[in-house]
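Re: that backbone. Tokens:
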């Protein structure tokens, strides 16, 4: 029987090592954005500033995303005057490195990661997220509520669409899907309850949520 999925903020050395490995598998081997290397691991250039939201099955990392609120964003370096494309008066955060293992993409891992990120973001006052969404998954981003802006960025084989998501769009598009997942007992994907909150050394980070 498959273990309950755990959605949490990465904190252990073994988790960070798996993040580097999944980062390589996704953004080097699957999407040729970066160059190959013999180690088959890719440490993000903003690694020290990233907060990583992960999903683990047992001890195996099966999904991840990173959040960072320090400017300049990665998108600032790809799109001049980024703020002119965004709704005014917002507290903006950038989401990057969204990756789910291919064999687990038909489940509800994405919803679980999104819920964890939104809860974390709302606790810190963020109400707008920007992302460079791979053109291979634009339908998914549109379904979530992301709004595209400007031309594509990247290179052949690794094109990305700059997009933003408001908290209002998330509540309209994704919150109902999360509620449906909770109500479908025995259905695949997360039925997430009992969010734990650690107010100790992590400074009040949401740390873990068990989902079946």
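Recovered sequence:
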């Amino acid at each position: 029987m498959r273990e309950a999925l755990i959605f949490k903020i990465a904190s252990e050395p073994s988790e960070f090592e798996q993040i580097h490995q999944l980062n390589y598998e996704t953004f080097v081997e699957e999407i040729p954005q970066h160059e190959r290397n013999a180690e088959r691991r890719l440490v993000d250039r903003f690694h020290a500033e990233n907060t990583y939201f992960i999903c683990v099955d047992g001890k195996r990392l099966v999904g991840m995303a990173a959040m960072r609120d320090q400017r300049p964003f990665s998108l600032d370096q790809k799109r001049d005057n980024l703020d002119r494309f965004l709704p005014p008066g917002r507290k903006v955060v950038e989401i990057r490195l969204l990756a789910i293992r291919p064999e687990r993409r038909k489940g509800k891992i994405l919803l679980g990661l999104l819920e964890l990120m939104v809860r974390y973001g709302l606790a810190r006052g963020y109400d707008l997220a920007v992302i460079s969404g791979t053109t291979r998954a634009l339908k998914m981003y549109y379904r979530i509520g992301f709004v595209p802006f400007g031309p594509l960025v990247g290179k052949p084989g690794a094109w990305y669409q700059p997009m933003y998501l408001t908290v209002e769009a998330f509540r309209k598009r994704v919150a109902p899907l999360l509620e449906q997942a909770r109500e479908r007992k025995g259905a695949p994907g997360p039925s997430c309850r009992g969010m734990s909150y650690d107010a100790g050394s992590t400074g009040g980070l949401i740390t873990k949520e068990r989902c079946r």
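The longest helix spans residues 13-30. The radius of gyration is 17 Å.
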